[in-house]
Amino acid sequence: MEGSPRLGPKGLIKKHEFVRILIQCLYSIGYEKSASCLELESGISCKSDDFQLLESQISSGNWDGCVDTLNAIKDLTDDTRAAALFLVFKQCLLEYLSCGDDKLAVAILQKEVSALQVDRDKVHNLARSILSWKEVEQSKIDDNAVRELRKKLWQELEKWLPSPITLPEHRLEHLVETAVLSQIDSCMYHNLSDEVSLYADHSCSRDQIPTETVQILTEHKNEVWFVQFSNNGEYLASSSSDCTAIIWKVPEDGRVTLKHTLRSHHNPVSFVAWSPDDSKLLTCGNVEVLKLWDVETGTCKHTFGDPGFIVSSCAWFPDSKQLVCGSSDPEKGIYMWDCDGNELKAWRGMRMPKILDLAVTPDGQNLISIFSDKEIRILNVGTNAERVISEDHSITSLSISGDSKFFIVNLNSQEIHMWDVAGEWVKPLKYMGHKQSKYVIRSCFGPLNSTFIASGSENAQVYIWNRRNSRPIEVLRGHSMTVNCVSWNHRRPQMLASASDDHSIRIWGSSLSNKIQPQKLS
């Protein structure tokens, strides 16, 4: 409509279109009287003239008129017109068969339907349905059923026909959601799962993410190499070169307390992994065996493999009954076990390189491993399909997003690379600003759709990125030596833990919600 008045400060919104989708919205949310009044007052109908005519013709069974109307609409593509006509002829055939007019039904099938450029399988299926109808001698469809079928037909056509003939379903809601999502996407600090208000433009402050130390844990007697929150956010596990691992309790008030110290290892413990149901914990080290612990009692339930079998990393499958581990010894490869130590599967042999790190996607479909320093192997567990990604620099660690779609690797080139699990990306997204050249540094995804990435650093700082930006949005200072590992509490989006060579774990929180002095726990 060329001369349609415009709305909005920039004049981008056509008034006629805006009123029309507003009327559609009122109808869809149940305000039929208001919608009808607005149609009357504005002179604008929710449905176009073409579609109102089509709806009237379908309701009265005027199939010839219906076909003429569809053929007369100029803005239809050939495929859409054919698909719409097929639906009309299908209903027409059904009604002729119901009335016992088999010859007319067959004639339409042969002359009209067969001439349409539609999938031949659809035509054949329609023909078979005619034969089936005749064989079982179906009785005539009653008037109420006919009305319902005709109503269903124009509802289907409403989805097929393009705008402006029809409007996409829930158009106004879609436009508003798109605007809200755009504001969320442009918000570097968005870390809330709460609903976003429409009353004001959305923007979060840095107080939405953890930026200040709220607690310092000093129970470990040597360098702390690994830290990870449980899946339910109620526990924290840490491991250290002091040959212990610790299970910490995270109560409602957020003040972390010691639950169990796990002392069965004889060498440094460099890795822990929570079972998906958080009832069990795995611990291992570069010169250590793999052990399984009961979280509630703190007792060791099983030691896997012989004393010479050294495990570098481990992971769980979603059922919390199967686990997998990788060995840093060449040829030992990857083993899959149940919780009783029964070997379920193994990838090993002369051609198997040492495994530096591995992880299972939360959906259990893919096993991702780091081997030969610079290569990433993505194995589909169900199909055994395999894909290998090669990096130019040595990889030290791996982390997977909670939705199983992405993973990040830390490189000793002082970059973090993010890849998609599906393999659609040609190049990774890159994040930089932290320091890493000599040690194993581990990063993690943040909560809320894995929007954030956090990483330790060799300069004693913690770095946080919004994954849409290659440069960090926050740098957290407090540790005095290398920060080896970080973990974000996915059930408490404003809680982050970091493990350092300074023998401590720092708990980071929001500057707004934690106006208390950091306390040490030792």
Top keywords for this entry?
four-stranded antiparallel β-sheet, five-stranded mixed β-sheet, 522 residues, 9 helices, elongated, 29% strand
What does this structure look like?
With 522 residues, this protein is α+β, with helices and mostly antiparallel strands. 25% of the residues lie in helices and 29% in strands. The chain has helices spanning 15-28, 32-42, 49-60, 63-72, 78-98, 102-113, 120-136, 143-160, 171-185, and strands at 6-7, 13-14, 212-217, 224-229, 235-240, 245-249, 257-262, 271-274, 280-284, 290-294, 300-304, 313-316, 322-326, 334-338, 343-347, 355-360, 366-371, 375-380, 386-390, 395-400, 406-411, 415-420, 429-432, 443-445, 452-455, 461-466, 474-477, 483-488, 496-500, 505-509, 519-521. The strands form eight sheets. It has a five-stranded mixed beta sheet, with no helix packed on it. Strands 4-5-6-7 form a four-stranded antiparallel beta sheet, with no helix packed on it. Strands 8-9-10-11 form a four-stranded antiparallel beta sheet, with no helix packed on it. Helix 1 (15-28) runs antiparallel to helix 2 (32-42), helix 3 runs antiparallel to helix 4 (63-72) and helix 6 runs antiparallel to helix 7 (120-136). Mean pLDDT is 90; it is low at 515-519. It holds the Pfam family WD40. It comes from Prunus mume. This is WD repeat-containing protein 26. WD repeats lie at residues 217-258, 262-303, 476-508. InterPro entries: CTLH_C, LisH, WD40/YVTN_repeat-like_dom_sf, WD40_repeat_dom_sf, WD40_rpt, WD_repeat-ST_regulator.
